[in-house]
Amino acid sequence: MRVLGIETSCDETGIAIYDEQLGIMAHQLYSQVALHADYGGVVPELASRDHIRKTIPLIDAALREAGCTKDDIDGVAFTAGPGLMGALLVGATIGRSLAFAWDKPAVAVHHMEGHLLAPMLEERAPAFPFVALLVSGGHTLLVRVDGIGRYEILGESVDDAAGEAFDKTAKLMGLDYPGGPRLAKLAEQGEANRFKFPRPMTDKPGLDFSFSGLKTATATAIANETKLAANGPVDEQTRADIAHAFQQAVVDTLAIKCKRALLHTGLNRLVVAGGVSANVSLRAQLSELMASLKGEAFYPRNEYCTDNGAMIAFAGLQRLKAGDVEPLAVRARPRWPL
Ligand code: KG4
Ligand code: ZN
Description:
Layout: E1 2-7, E2 12-19, E3 23-31, H1 33-37, H2 44-66, E4 75-81, H3 85-102, E5 106-110, H4 111-117, E6 130-135, E7 140-147, E8 150-156, H5 162-172, H6 179-188, H7 212-228, H8 236-265, E9 269-273, H9 280-292, E10 296-298, H10 310-321
Parallel strand pairs: 1-4, 4-5, 6-9, 9-10
Antiparallel strand pairs: 1-2, 2-3, 6-7, 7-8
Helix pairs in contact: 2-3, 4-10, 5-6, 5-7, 5-8, 6-8, 7-8, 8-9
The protein binds 5'-O-[(R)-(carboxyoxy)(hydroxy)phosphoryl]adenosine and zinc ion (ZN).
The site of 5'-O-[(R)-(carboxyoxy)(hydroxy)phosphoryl]adenosine has 19 residues, from helix 5 and helix 6.
């Protein structure tokens, strides 16, 4: 079976072709970062219009890259939610219509299921069951995964998602969009232990997260340092030290909750996925945690951490094999529980 995957839920147009035997045959990605940079964040209307421009040319490019035609495609998978309504509708409309025109089944994929299964695209793929930590711009979820579609939410963020906290904190530190990776880069230059931020909700039992307070902790640290600098700009080392403290607080908090989830479920495999799983410090700490628990950690390669079509093609194939088929109506779900 060979599936075309279409991802347009936010600010990347991702198209891929996944074949059950051959693996990823084509992977096309267009990032809208430059389009939104002047606005400091994603402008939904601009995102939708750009997906309209890019989706079909990228599908053509993917078919060329795979060296196949529409006749070799057995199904079309598209992200139907969660995400920006207009952006989702572009992928859903094109995906559903193409499948109809090609006389192939269509399947609606949950964006977070795509992220969740992305580590299975790697040669060293995790076996079920496992605990998954999903950390993206829109979600922070701890999930017990027993198989395709067998997901039990163990914990989630009660306010900002981990990626959102990175992005908002980066913005208040004056870093350009997209802030998360920039803040992570700045943090690399920072020294540990100069600033200490809280590890929210780790002193109480439970597996939920809260990250919005870390923005305030960062803002307060910057305000204090600005005062100490006689209202002048905060020096670069201090900024890096603050970024380091923020990142360490997020990473520690995620690691504490992962450990708790693993002990609670008795499982020893941890899958980490979503945009923030590209974070080097998070990977290092979680790998260390899994070594100490005599378990294993699994991550997607960097290009499959952030939004992409490969994870949608892969998840779509699993869903089609399980008998899921999308009816003819075009449906998009900006809010859609996993
Ligand atoms: O999965 P993704 O591409 O899109 C969503 O589904 O939201 O995740 C994007 C998020 C953004 O918040 C971005 O700042 C964050 O992932 N991100 C990172 C890093 N790379 C991407 N956060 C921290 N460190 C990184 N290296
Ligand atoms: Zn995503």
